[in-house]
Input
Amino acid sequence: MSKNQDLVTYTGGCHCGAVRFQVTVDRHEVYNCNCSICRKKGFLHLIVPSEQFTLLRGEEVLTTYTFNTGVAKHTFCRICGIHSFYRPRSHPHCLDVNIRCLDEDIISRFKIISFDGANWEENAEKIQNNF
Output
């Protein structure tokens, strides 16, 4: 993956506004995963190192869903149910932000890369090695 020279900071949050965060982006590339949970959530994955993510408010309203291996920590707002970010199985030391939860309509600024998460075991290395 190529890195952009300039860092860009975005803010975002859940639908009801109880959860707010800030993320600093140095690469405008996201993954569109076809696994069972990502398809249903419509998640577009922006994976960033933990130090590039700041939870501004709402820790007390976040709850976590886990399944399968239990490694991924799917956090969501218990008030409105929106999954703004989570700790991904592929990069458990990072955070994965849904760019659809950023304040601006900025999808056009990102390169969208298809990822075959429905066959995760066969393809995980493709995204693990690209970060």
Notes: The helical segments are 36-41, 120-128. The domain at 8-128 is CATH 2.170.150.70 (Metal Binding Protein, Guanine Nucleotide Exchange Factor; Chain A).
